[in-house]
Amino acid sequence: MTTEGIYAQELGCYIVIERIGGQICRIRLSDQPPAEGHSKAAEQILNHILGRGTADLDLDFSGFTEFQRDIYRTVSAIPRGKTMTYGQVAEFSGHPGAARAVGRAMAVNPYPLVMPCHRVVASDGLGGYGFGLKMKEKILALERARAFDMQLNSD
Question: What does the angle CA 84 – CA 49 – CA 142 come to, to the nearest 5 degrees?
Fold first, then answer.
C-alpha cells in the first residue's frame, strides 16, 4: 500500500490517499504526513472541499452492497453547505426506517470528503464522525462559508 496526500491548512491536518496497485482504496485525515508525498488526487479533494472545483476520482465501488451504493449515491448528492439526517438519507435512498443502517454505512465509508458523510447528521445533533465531532463541525462550517461566498459571488 502507498500513501500520498496534501496538507490542508484549513482543516489543520493532512488529506491522505491510500492506494493498492494504483487504485484508491481509502481516503482519510491524519496528523502525520503521507509516506509518498504530494498527491494531485488529494489536491482535488481539498479544492472540492473549498468550493474551487470537483474531485473527479476513479473510486472502486465493487466491494459495496447495493444498500451502501444507494446510500452513498444519496449522500454524494447533498449540496455543499447543506445537511440531511440519517433518516432522510434512508428515505431518499429508498430505504425508509433504515436510519441506523445509514449510520453504519457512514461509519465504513472509505471515501469521506468525496462521499461527504460529514453532511449526514442525527435528528437531534451532529451524530458521529470517524475523525471526531470537532472536525465534522470544522468541515461543515467551512463548506457553509464557501457555499455562502459562492452565492454572493454568482450575482
Answer: 75
Q: What would the grid cell of residue 42 be? A: 488529494
Q: End-to-end CA distance of the chain, in Å?
A: 46
Among 6, 42, 71, 117, the one annotated catalytic: 117
E strand spans, the chain? 2-8, 13-20, 23-30, 84-85, 120-121
Over residues 60-103, the pLDDT tens digits come to 888 899 999 999 999 999 988 899 999 999 999 999 999 999 99
Domain 66-153 is found in CATH 1.10.10.10: yes
- DSSP classification of residue 71: H
Catalytic-residue membership of 117: yes
CA-to-CA distance for 68 and 105, rounded, in angstroms? 6
Q: Which tens digits make up the pLDDT trace of 18-75?
A: 998 888 999 999 999 999 989 999 999 999 888 887 888 888 888 899 999 999 999 9
Looking at this protein, which amino acid is placed at residue 152?
A: L
Q: Are 22 and 52 in contact (CB under 8 A)?
A: no
